[in-house]
Amino acid sequence: MRTVFVTVGTTSFDDLIENITSSEAVETLKAQGYERLVLQVGRGSLLPVADSCPHIRLEAFRFKDSIAEDIKRADLVISHAGAGSCLEALNAGKPLLVVVNDKLMNNHQLELAAQLHADSHLLYCTCSTLTETLRTMDLSVLQPFLPGQPKTFAAFLDKALGVR
Amino acid sequence: MFLLSVAFAVLLICLLFIIRLYVVVKTGPKYKPGSRGPVAVVVVAGSGGHTTEILRLMECLSAAYTPRHYVIADTDRMSEEKICTFESSKQDSDSKSQFTICRIPRSREVHQSWSSTVVSTLNALRYSLPLVFRLRPDMVLCNGPGTCVPLCVAGLLLGILGMKKVLIVYVESICRVQTLSLTGKILYPISDYFFVQWSSLRDKYPKSIFLGRIV
């Protein structure tokens, strides 16, 4: 079953939850072939119940010790711009759409999402353009995100410190 | 006359201190503790993402980096678990490896105000000084939690007093693309090796080392 996983991390992002469960967005997801929608809503005030969206299989929860399993089972991850969430999804090799909370200004966490978008590792939109982005998105433009190379760090340090 | 001589002495000490500071910071690249045997490391683990990132780096360091002293904030339970899991997996490949975990008060809780941060950092320094003076590491490895500032200052002081050169190795978080973190800004002038993970930061901070993404 093709699944979309939405995560807001440890924050709250009601605008995103409201928009993604709107009938317009759900219709669009259905049209794109997604049948299941899993929401991690964090500290938000909205916790949609399963039958609030009749056209899609909906599950929602606030927190889990690890969302690794949810990410693994997802075919598309929709996330807030938090660095931890972005990296977790990309390291799992999942297509990622980051929804920027334009009510949060000067958040340094946005730096990373913006750069990863510039490097074509993720798609990027705001709540008001979410449905439009879901309709027109082309996941094939995304470039694979290669893991960082701690070995180059170790090699540099060995040389610098004279370790044989 | 007496006052004048006291003032002169204080001035002289300050001058000496500054000269020593300059010498200690400048001689970092020439200092090669690895050529004389194992390198004792103080690893400053933070909390959450910081700990995960620094353990990714530790994974690739050879057994030459022994012993490893991990420093964590006293309110942090998660990191201790992560470190023990990591070290026991490392133990399998190298039976001689050894490590300790030390706790110091946290310099700054998330969302703590800046003025009270100064007070709690001074408090953390009170614990960091004896710790670093006792461990006498060859290097301090850190990646951003506020706790690393007092530890690096203590390491610097060992060098200034001529007791031991302690290399300060700082790795800026992968989250930092355009601007350094506050810890990064403080440690940039006094660190011996300062790694950034995005080229835009290397361009702004010429002393920094850019090897691509390393975590």
TrEMBL record, chain A:
Its EC number is 2.4.1.141. It is found in: Endoplasmic reticulum. GO terms for molecular function: N-acetylglucosaminyldiphosphodolichol N-acetylglucosaminyltransferase activity. It is an enzyme of class 2 (transferase). The keyword tRNA processing does not apply. Residues 3-143 form the Glycosyl transferase family 28 C-terminal domain. GO terms for biological process: dolichol-linked oligosaccharide biosynthetic process. It comes from the Eukaryota. GO terms for cellular component: endoplasmic reticulum. Keywords: Endoplasmic reticulum, Glycosyltransferase, Transferase. PANTHER family: GLYCOSYL TRANSFERASE-RELATED (PTHR12867), N-ACETYLGLUCOSAMINYLDIPHOSPHODOLICHOL N-ACETYLGLUCOSAMINYLTRANSFERASE (PTHR12867:SF6). Belongs to the glycosyltransferase 28 family. This is UDP-N-acetylglucosamine transferase subunit ALG13. It comes from Anabas testudineus (Climbing perch).
From TrEMBL, chain B:
It is found in: Endoplasmic reticulum membrane. GO terms for molecular function: N-acetylglucosaminyldiphosphodolichol N-acetylglucosaminyltransferase activity. The keyword Membrane applies. InterPro entries: Oligosacch_biosynth_Alg14. GO terms for cellular component: UDP-N-acetylglucosamine transferase complex. The keyword Transmembrane applies. Forms with ALG13 the active heterodimeric UDP-N-acetylglucosamine transferase complex. This is UDP-N-acetylglucosamine transferase subunit ALG14.
